[in-house]
Task: structure prediction
Amino acid sequence: MSTTPAYTGSPSQGGNSADIADWRPEDEQFWRERGSRIAYRNLWLSIPALLCGFAVWGMWGIITVQMLNLGFPFSQAELFTLTAIAGISGATMRIPASFLIRLAGGRNTIFLTTAMLLAPAIGTGIALQHPEWPLWVFQLMALWSGVGGGNFASSMSNISTFFPKRLQGTALGLNAGLGNFGVTTMQIVIPLVMTLSIFGSFGGEPMTLLKDSGWIFGRIAAGTPTWIQNAGFAWVLSLLPLALFCWFGMNNLKTVTPAAGSPPVAFLKITYLYSLAFVPSVAMLYLYLPAPTGLGLLNMWVAIPLDIVLSLLVMKLAAFGTMKENVAKQFEIFRNKHTWAMTALYVVTFGSFIGFSMALPLAITVIFGFIHAPDAAGVMQHTLKNPNAPSALTYAWIGPFVGAAVRPIGGWISDKVGGSIVTQIISAVMVVASAAVGYVMLQAYGSATPEQHFPLFMGLFILLFAASGIGNGSTFRSVGFIFDRQQAGPVLGWTSAVAAYGAFIAPVLIGQQIKAGTPQYAFYGFAVFYAACLVLNWWFYLRAKAYVKNP
Result:
């Protein structure tokens, strides 16, 4: 039996009971006798923390639907920008988050970033009580919610360091898949808590629905009192105890983070880098968003690369001391061609999952909530309310639920047969399903009875979510197979950061095409991208002379 101590807990060593000095997950005896228990404890605490991160990040997809139903004085296009801002903020936050574990330690990072979610949750609750406040206030809250999106990169990077390579697909699939239930949880919980005065007089007064709304069990009629502010406030009830559980139950691996420093020093590193991440996001959004919020100088395809480059540049220039050396080491992943290949493939899977999760509720409302018919002059109109419209809040949760549920299955299958084979199959499915969704949207947006197309539309979207969820598990397994232990964590963080821009791209692109009267073009474009990545996956990992065979 191994006599190697697992913890550096003695005062003479300058450690504490949460710091682990000896970590050898590839050693089967160590894993069996000690490592497995520690790793799984960190995993089971990581999952609910990540779930809440996804919930806070994604909540604007539901909040905007209810803002429309309550008559907030903003256009459909302006409401789409709120989900897009939350999306790009969360994506940008993932860039520094992907480096936090090796700079500050896993326990320190997960505790603080979970506690940070309290700020956007409370701030959003306050803002939603004031529909007369200007748009920029809600945009600021959406930007702040991006902290929850950033947490994915640090969470995945952390869990990857605890498990042996043979279990990477399963462990990361569980962390991401069950963590992604935050999207589904949010889409179920928020419509429910908005119907209840759960905080009494402390939670503020209700507003009255001007349009029918709904939740998973059906329609909520216009005229119903609604506490929309609970969409933010409700998360405080889980975040406070969860942060404490993470602090007392998780660990820092000294083999991964030898120079994290004391907890206050680690917290300063995390806060510093996260604060810096807001700078490029705000600058890019100011150049991208139209007046009166911004200048409207850039289109989306310029804004996103600019945001990524500025974020990396800010990190590189702002790092100092030991941080500078650690950041430089992490930047070495960009010299590896597989970093770029896996980034593209992860955009197919997670980028699609989070993008569609953000855009689907409002897309259902806009496409199926109105009658699309020509006026007397023959001009197509999309303003008359559809009395038979399906409620977005009743159905939108199903897709993310399926995508999250099958993600661990994708990791498990990939551990058995190889990640790239699974990625290839799901990419082909997504090409066909995306093109089919585009065609159905074309039919619905030109129909006076769009609801007749809704079952097929929803079925195809569920197929897209299922494929993207399985594909997420396969890409996790491939990253763990291709890269060594020192690079796998940062690569997972980086690829997840770029893929998270799907939360910005999908709402903006779908919103633009709906406004132009051609929503199908967005999904035809997605299908072309999926087809290109299918070829990329084959070239790198499946052809006879592939760089790495079937990772």
